[in-house]
């Protein structure tokens, strides 16, 4: 490591992220003994450190039916070779944990994630759940045929026994919901997620809304429909993450969701979007809601269907573009630490609110 890089890493990790941990913002990691489930097992939530709360390592984005009829021979050695340098880059910036939000039928590969975690030294999380957005192209037959209870039992079994025969346990329940009045399948999946959340204590992270650009207010309606249904089933709003909240143009909806206690995740940052992210995050800070905000990039992924994974989107810009822009925009180190260290340690802490 070059001296300049080392000093950069020191500034990012020891100084900026070495804040006195969790300030007891809410009932999660502030409590002694709160834990987070990584692909290498349970860790203290307070040990998450600087965390990217929504990224991807590997994905197969072909429709589920095609994945089944034409499975790809994945060369995991090659994936590790391609992805590892991108992980090293962010480690040098002080990153300690990466949440892989790749949904169950979009190429989730727990063994590969564990290999990348062990090769890099970064802590990583994987998911259980079901993704029924994107016009249903990733919906497997069992999600159509099983009841909410059966789906919940399927996900609870992954939590209890591990995913397949890997012994790797999920650290969150990942959904994909797009209806601004949820469809019957979406409602069933949300009911299943509620049951699984209450049983396991895992947070629910919902991709919210259609993939294409949509009218202001549209994704907010989808978010609140989910929140209403989950709360009605007994789930605390703090156990739900509004994924891709940046796609909702009405900032008032972010504020309302956060006031209800939900996590609002601005997770698609790309270089050039500094001003837009500063405005969204700044509004939450000004409303006193910074402790409900997650920020990440939805970046990465080795695309299984392309040679050597296609064009990989690096994880580095959050450190080299967004965080400097936040500092220039008046965010102090405590606020930055809250967004990237404290908040993830609360959001992903396994919490059984109803026991
Ligand atoms: Zn994503």
Average pLDDT for all residues: 92
Spatial sequence of strands, sheet with the most strands: 6-7-8-9-10-11
Q: How much strand content do the residues show?
A: 15-25%
Low-confidence stretches: 1-30
CATH first level: which class?
Alpha Beta
Terminus-to-terminus distance: 48 Å
CATH fold description = TIM Barrel
How large is the count of helical segments? Answer: 12
Count of spatially separate domains: 1
Q: Biggest sheet, open or closed, and with what strands and sense?
A: 6 strands, parallel
Shape: globular
The CATH homologous superfamily is termed Metal-dependent hydrolases
Describe, in short, the structure shown.
By secondary structure, this protein is an alpha/beta fold. It has a single domain (3-13, 48-347), classed as TIM Barrel, CATH 3.20.20. It has twelve helices and twelve strands.
What is the topological layout?
Layout: H1 3-17, E1 35-38, E2 41-44, E3 50-59, H2 64-69, H3 76-91, E4 95-100, H4 110-120, E5 123-125, E6 127-131, H5 141-145, H6 148-161, E7 172-177, H7 184-200, E8 204-208, H8 218-232, E9 240-243, H9 251-259, E10 263-266, H10 274-286, E11 293-295, E12 300-303, H11 317-328, H12 333-347
Parallel strand pairs: 3-4, 3-12, 4-5, 6-7, 7-8, 8-9, 9-10, 10-11
Antiparallel strand pairs: 1-2
Bound molecules: zinc ion.
């Amino acid at each position: 490591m070059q001296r300049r890089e080392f000093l950069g890493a020191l500034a990012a990790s020891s100084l900026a992220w070495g804040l006195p941990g969790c300030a007891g913002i809410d009932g999660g990691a502030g409590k002694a003994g709160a834990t987070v489930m990584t692909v290498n097992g349970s860790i203290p939530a307070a040990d998450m450190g600087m965390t990217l709360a929504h990224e991807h390592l590997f994905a197969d984005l072909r429709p589920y039916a095609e994945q089944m009829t034409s499975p790809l021979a994945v060369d995991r050695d090659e994936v590790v070779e391609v992805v590892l340098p991108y992980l090293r880059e962010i480690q040098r910036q002080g990153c300690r944990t990466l949440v892989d939000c790749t949904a169950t039928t979009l190429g989730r590969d727990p063994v590969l994630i564990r290999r990348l975690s062990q090769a890099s030294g970064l802590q990583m999380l994987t998911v259980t759940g079901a993704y029924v957005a994107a016009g249903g192209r990733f919906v497997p037959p069992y999600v159509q045929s099983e009841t909410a209870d059966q789906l919940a039992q399927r996900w609870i079994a992954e939590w209890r026994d591990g995913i397949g025969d890997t012994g790797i346990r999920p650290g969150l329940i990942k959904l994909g919901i797009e209806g601004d009045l949820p469809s019957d399948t979406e409602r069933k999946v949300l009911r299943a997620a509620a049951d699984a959340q209450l049983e396991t204590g895992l947070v629910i992270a919902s991709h919210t809304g259609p993939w294409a650009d949509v009218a202001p207010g549209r994704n907010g309606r989808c978010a609140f429909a989910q929140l209403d249904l989950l709360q009605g089933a007994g789930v605390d709003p703090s156990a739900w993450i509004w994924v891709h909240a940046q796609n909702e143009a009405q900032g008032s909806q972010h504020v309302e969701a956060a006031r209800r206690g939900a996590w609002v995740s601005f997770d698609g940052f790309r270089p050039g979007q500094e001003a837009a992210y500063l405005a969204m995050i700044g509004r939450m800070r000004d409303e006193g809601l910074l402790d409900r905000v997650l920020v990440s990039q939805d970046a990465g992924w080795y695309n299984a269907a392309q040679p050597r994974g296609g064009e990989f989107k690096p994880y580095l810009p959050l450190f080299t573009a967004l965080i400097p822009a936040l500092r220039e925009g008046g965010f102090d180190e405590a606020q930055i630490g809250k967004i990237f260290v404290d908040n993830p340690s609360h959001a992903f802490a396994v919490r059984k609110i109803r026991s």
